[in-house]
């Protein structure tokens, strides 16, 4: 079904259907404009295509719930720790109001959805970050939820999958955010000591403290096409080294070429790829 939709829209691309309309001509919610090529697509069709542009193959941002629906066998996903909510430990101005606004917008209490489910009948635990919530930034609750998801995977003796989509550590929580880098990494080390699998899937963007901690230490590191992956921003690095960086610097393809990724996987192939990885690495996989 999904592949048929991709083929149909690729034919439309070859036919060069006019798509450059004025921004005000696009009905809100009905049509979606690709941020890369500016092609306009029916939102309902785009969702069926897993939010991949049929014209330029740009992978648009997904919500955590959309990824869960894409990934797991129907009816098998069960979320964990939905009750955990962020407080304002540093009394940062307007922080509580912004978090509450994002909670209403996304339907999540924080920037990560965690739980357990099955992929082609194989049980896993998962943490899926959502860049629609405070740009997926990692505060104390995000770190706690990811840590608990890893510990659940260790308890069950199953693989842990983590989809990253984050601007990094959340500045409104200061050092409490930075502490999550160590906490999540320790939980993953304990998971590894049990001989259990961790697959990291990096999506746009994976930056800052998230890229410098759990995102980069998977037994297998995957990424979506053209995902932005790095620690510091491009301009900061160029000003520091006083050199012009390659155009594809900090993209998934650049990292793959330089040995920092195992594979770049198209979104429509992600479930199949993860299923194969689990079967190859888990002794009791069905």
From TrEMBL:
Coiled coil segments of this chain: none
Pathway(s) this gene product operates in, as recorded in its UniProt entry: Lipid metabolism; malonyl-CoA biosynthesis; malonyl-CoA from acetyl-CoA: step 1/1
UniProt keyword Zinc present: yes
Keyword list, A-Z: ATP-binding, Cytoplasm, Fatty acid biosynthesis, Fatty acid metabolism, Ligase, Lipid biosynthesis, Lipid metabolism, Metal-binding, Nucleotide-binding, Transferase, Zinc, Zinc-finger
GO cellular component: acetyl-CoA carboxylase complex
Annotated residues for binding of Zn(2+): 34, 37, 53, 56
Compositionally biased spans, kind Basic and acidic residues: 8-26
MF GO annotations: acetyl-CoA carboxylase activity; ATP binding; carboxyl- or carbamoyltransferase activity; zinc ion binding
SUPFAM superfamilies: ClpP/crotonase
UniProt-annotated location(s): Cytoplasm
Obligatory cofactor(s): Zn(2+)
Alphabetical GO biological process terms: fatty acid biosynthetic process; malonyl-CoA biosynthetic process
First-tier enzyme category under EC: transferase
Similarity comment: family membership: Belongs to the AccD/PCCB family.
Function: Component of the acetyl coenzyme A carboxylase (ACC) complex. Biotin carboxylase (BC) catalyzes the carboxylation of biotin on its carrier protein (BCCP) and then the CO(2) group is transferred by the transcarboxylase to acetyl-CoA to form malonyl-CoA.
Subunit structure: Acetyl-CoA carboxylase is a heterohexamer composed of biotin carboxyl carrier protein (AccB), biotin carboxylase (AccC) and two subunits each of ACCase subunit alpha (AccA) and ACCase subunit beta (AccD).
Protein name: Acetyl-coenzyme A carboxylase carboxyl transferase subunit beta
């Amino acid at each position: 079904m999904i592949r048929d939709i991709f083929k149909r829209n690729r034919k439309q691309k070859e036919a060069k259907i006019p798509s450059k309309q004025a921004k005000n001509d696009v009905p809100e919610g009905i049509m979606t404009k690709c941020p890369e090529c500016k092609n306009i697509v029916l939102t309902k069709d785009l969702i069926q295509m897993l939010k991949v542009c049929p014209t330029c193959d740009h992978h648009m941002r997904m919500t955590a719930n959309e990824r869960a629906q894409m990934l797991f066998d129907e009816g098998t996903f069960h979320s964990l720790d939905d009750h955990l909510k962020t407080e304002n430990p540093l009394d940062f101005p307007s922080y509580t109001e912004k978090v509450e606004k994002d909670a209403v917008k996304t339907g999540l209490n924080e920037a990560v959805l965690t739980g357990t489910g099955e992929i082609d009948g194989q049980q896993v635990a998962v943490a899926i970050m959502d860049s629609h919530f405070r740009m997926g930034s990692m505060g104390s609750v995000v770190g706690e939820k990811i840590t608990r998801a890893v510990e659940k995977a260790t308890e069950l003796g199953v693989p842990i999958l983590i989809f990253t989509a984050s601007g990094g550590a959340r500045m409104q929580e200061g050092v409490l955010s930075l502490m999550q880098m160590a906490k999540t990494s320790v939980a993953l080390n304990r998971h590894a000591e049990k001989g259990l699998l961790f697959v990291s899937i990096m999506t746009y963007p994976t930056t800052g403290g998230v890229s410098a901690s759990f995102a980069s230490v998977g037994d297998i590191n995957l990424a979506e096409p053209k995902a932005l992956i790095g620690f510091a921003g491009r301009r900061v690095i160029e000003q520091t080294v006083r050199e012009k960086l390659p155009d594809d610097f900090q993209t998934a393809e650049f990292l793959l070429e330089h040995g920092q990724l195992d594979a770049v996987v198209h979104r429509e192939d992600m479930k199949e790829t993860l299923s194969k990885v689990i079967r190859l690495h888990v002794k009791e996989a069905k």
